[in-house]
Amino acid sequence: MHKLNKKFYIALTLLGLIGQIAWVVENMYLNVFIYKMFRATAADISLMVALSAVTATATTLLMGALSDKVGKRKVLICGGYIVWGVSILGFSLVRMDVLSPLCETTAQAMSLGVTLTIALDCLMTFFGSTANDAAYNAWLTDMGDEHTRGRIEGINAMMPLVAILCVFGGFMGFDLDKAESWNTIYLIIGAVVLVIGAAGIFLVEDKAVKNEGSYIENLLYSFRPSVVKENLHLYIVLFAFAVFGISIQIFMPYLILYYEKSLGMADYVLIMAPAIVLASVFTALYGRKYDSWGFKKSIMPCLALLMLGYALLYYTWTAAPVFVGSLLMMCGYLGGMAVFGARIRGLIPENMAGRFQGVRIIGQVLIPGVIGPAVGAWVLRNAQQILNSDGTYSFLPNENIFFAAAVAAVAVIVLLGVYFRHQKENGKKTVRGTLPRKTHRKK
User: Fold this and answer.
1) Within a domain: residue 210?
2) What total number of domains does the chain contain?
3) In angstroms, what CA-CA distances link 368 with 25, 41, 267, 360, 400?
4) How many C-beta atoms lie closer than 10 Å to residue 210's C-beta?
5) H or E stretch including 393?
6) How far is CA 130 from the centre of its chain?
7) Cα distance between residue 21 and residue 160, in whole Å
């Protein structure tokens, strides 16, 4: 058993939390930013999420293979976090008082604002994916083993919810309809990410990684047919994970707008905060169950919670049931992320974590990030429009995004059902990534 010291857990907590805070600002509040500041449409939001997903995937493929080639993760983690913070600071310059003098009309300035936000989002994603998706995630895989992956993923998977809580709480004091509020937010978040990157220099301890093969060989390794065949279970689980991600991304880009604009919950932070705290505790504790229950017994309850959450969010519109629905949805979402994450890390061949980060990010980010928001935008194509005080119109997200998300979640259940049936029928055969049945129950 590989023993993990306190420094590792401090690094895991700080780098994981601050990285997720940056991703929360990008994934949940950048949508709010271009909606409120530049009157972005659902199609604009879908395009931004899709391009960011493509950037994240390409970056993770390239930089994950590079981290395997150089045999070190630390320099990419720390250096990446530092420049990631600098790129976030750049958003403070994307505002109407800067753009209006460059354009003839307000509409042109708003259009330019949308374009610049999307472009800068892609740049920020490049640095963030280098630091977090490629190097940091490969480092977590290096440091864990079959005895500790559930514990590591339980902590790692709760970070998005803790980050949401931090961002929600931190944003309570800001009027997000004012440009100066966004200025301050970007300056604070950018500075914090930069500082944590510098702190990582003293916290991250590299584990020796074998440096084998050329960079191009490492880059293309996970796409070889022979590698897919050898690690078939890994790719099947990744595909199911991608459909799980599609379910989440159908509604997630529009979630805050739905709470605030469609349900009229100006105090949605006060409603969401308790749900986030409870879901975070659930995720941290539930991640440990993977180590004793295994994949099958731990993933199905998460999907059941997710479906119950969707049902409540689809059929209810008042504070109490929306709170319960949000809590169930987040427990299912984050618990599922922890279980899927632990299973995927366990199926990645030893000393090849960097080479498989690209194919992991395709399942976790690219496919969900392109398909999910596009489905959400299609569902909202005829959504109600509201007139803004400046004469422009904005769309109102509706509950149909949760119905569409539930359909995708059903597809995940069907896929996993086929996978588990295949495992049962071939239980006596040992393939790479599949342990004998007796051992598998102990994981």
Assistant:
1) no
2) 1
3) 18, 20, 29, 12, 18
4) 10
5) strand 393-395
6) 14
7) 7
DSSP codes of every residue in 7-52: HHHHHHHHHHHHHHHHHHIIIIIHHHHHHHHH---HHHHHHHHHHH
CATH number at residue 141: 1.20.1250.20
Predicted confidence (pLDDT) per residue in 240-273, tens digit: 999 999 999 999 888 888 998 899 887 777 777 7
**211 inside domain:** no
Range of the domain at 248: 6-204+216-442
Cβ neighbours around 160 below 10 Å, total: 26
- Indicate the length of the chain as a whole number: 443
SS3 340: helix
Q: Is 1 among the domain residues?
A: no
Residue 209 lies inside a defined structural domain of this protein: no
Q: What's residue 440's pLDDT?
A: 39
Phi/psi for 103 (5° steps) reads -130, 160
Please list, in sequence order, all residues whose beta carbon lies within 8 angstroms of the beta carbon of residue 229, skipping any fewer than 6 positions away: none
Please, what is the Cα angle at 373 between 367 and 378, to 5 degrees? 120
CA 38 – CA 282 distance, rounded (Å): 38
Which sign, positive or negative, has the C-alpha torsion 123, 128, 131, 136?
A: negative
What's the longest Cα–Cα distance across the chain?
71
Q: For residue 386, give the H/E element and its range.
A: strand 385-387
Banded pLDDT at 434 (limits 50, 70, 90): very low
Give the pLDDT confidence score for residue 390 in this predicted structure.
66
Q: Which residue has the higher pLDDT, 217 or 417?
A: 417
pLDDT over 60 at 353, yes or no:
yes
Tens digit of each residue's pLDDT (9 = 90 or more) over 154-198:
788 778 777 877 887 787 788 888 999 999 999 999 999 999 999
The answer, yes or no, to whether residue 352 has pLDDT greater than 90, is no
The 3-state secondary structure of 266-298, one letter per residue: CCHHHHHHHHHHHHHHHHHHHCCHHHHHCHHHH
What are the tens digits of pLDDT across the range 225-235?
898 888 888 99
Q: Using an 8 Å Cβ cutoff, are 106 and 100 in contact? A: yes
Contact 4, 148 (CB under 8 A): yes
Token digits for 302? Answer: 């998460």
